[in-house]
Amino acid sequence: MDFIISVLERSIGQVFLSLLHNWPYLVASIVIAAVLAVSVDAKKVSAFLGRHRGAGVVTATAAAVTTPLCSCGTTAVVLGMMASTMPWAPIIAFMVSSPLSSPEGVVYTAGLFGLPFAIAMFIASVLLGLAGGAVATVLERRGVLANQARLTSTGTTAAAGGACPCAAEPSPRLSVTVPLAQPVLAVASVTATACGCGTSIDAIGGGARAAIAEAPRASAVRSRLARLPLEILNVSKRLLPLFIGFAFIGYVLNNLVPAAWVAALFGGGKIYGVPLAATLGLPLYISSEASLPMVRALLDAGMSQGAVMAFLIAGSGTSLGAIAGALTIARWRVIAVVVGVLWIGAMATGFAYNMLLSLKVIG
């Protein structure tokens, strides 16, 4: 009993030290997330991609890594891309890259793992998005991805509703209406209303979005500024408990499991460490707010940075929320491409990052 109490006390102290070290990054990521939440609309992202469809995969990847969309928001954007009859390549590029990186995520990651690690994660997000688009292009030309848009048995409507994985409140329904005479991807109309990590994409704060659209630009700016404090509070209420809770879990594991065991499984120089971490990331990843502080504790116990990166890359794009969102719009071949690119890319990135560290290219 004394040992357990000692472990808990030591873990609480380590969480406090982690907060003390990372609070500027936490505050910055909260503010950035809130600003983007009140200013970025998934429909506008979809419209941007539609206007620049000539650039295809590159445009989709760039939009994915610079927007703060969670699995629900990603689903809404992908529905909009399907409405403009885009091929699968840019859609899959967006599905691969979007969960991996965001502006506030870069800041959050830099606070926990350092700026070089955060930059490497961002670069990996871009490269994997491009790789996913390239793989999809080849498969689509060979007809492998034909008829992979998900429809109901009637062939007229594909719908997904229920609780958004990113928010406590149920999200509105997603619906795609497809005329029977058209090809699968020739979507006639799309109604995509989903939450973006706690914020409604179609209407932030009820009918505020419609009012903003009709009001003068100055009024729209004032409305966004008025919503900003509430959004900061909402993001804080979501991020801080997850950070504290899962950092505590990580440090408890760190103090219970001998560091030699972690180093033996995931340490630098272990050829199986990176593949094992990438594979465990598929079912065990929860969310960036929860998994990053937990894995930070395992890094302190001897996990290599390459294994950490492999876990985060493989897990973030294949979490329950990401797969659930993808299944509402696509069938298993598309999902297999996304998961395969992320899993193989996570291992390649992890090995490459460990190699760069061993060669002293990264300090």
Describe this structure as you would to a colleague.
This protein is mainly alpha-helical and 363 residues long. It has one domain. The protein is built from 15 helices and 3 strands. It has a 3-stranded antiparallel sheet with strand order 1-2-3, with helices on one face. α3 runs parallel beside α5, α5 crosses α15 and α12 runs antiparallel to α13. It is globular, with a radius of gyration of 21 Å. About 17% of the residues have low confidence.
Q: How many DSSP-defined strands?
A: 3
Total helix count?
15
Low-confidence stretches: 151-204, 206-213
The whole-number mean of residue pLDDT values reads: 74
Q: Please report the distance between the alpha carbons of the first and last residues.
A: 42 Å
Lay out the secondary structure.
Elements (H helix, E strand, L loop, with lengths): L1 H38 L2 H10 L5 H10 L4 H13 L4 H10 L5 H11 L1 H27 L15 E7 L6 E8 L11 E4 L15 H7 L2 H40 L2 H8 L6 H12 L3 H13 L4 H13 L2 H8 L4 H27 L5
Antiparallel strand pairs: 1-2, 2-3
Summarize the structure.
With 363 residues, the chain is mainly alpha-helical. The chain has helices at 2-39, 42-51, 57-66, 71-83, 88-97, 103-113, 115-141, 208-214, 217-256, 259-266, 273-284, 288-300, 305-317, 320-327, 332-358; strands spanning 157-163, 170-177, 189-192.
Keywords, please?
about 375 residues, mainly alpha, 3 strands
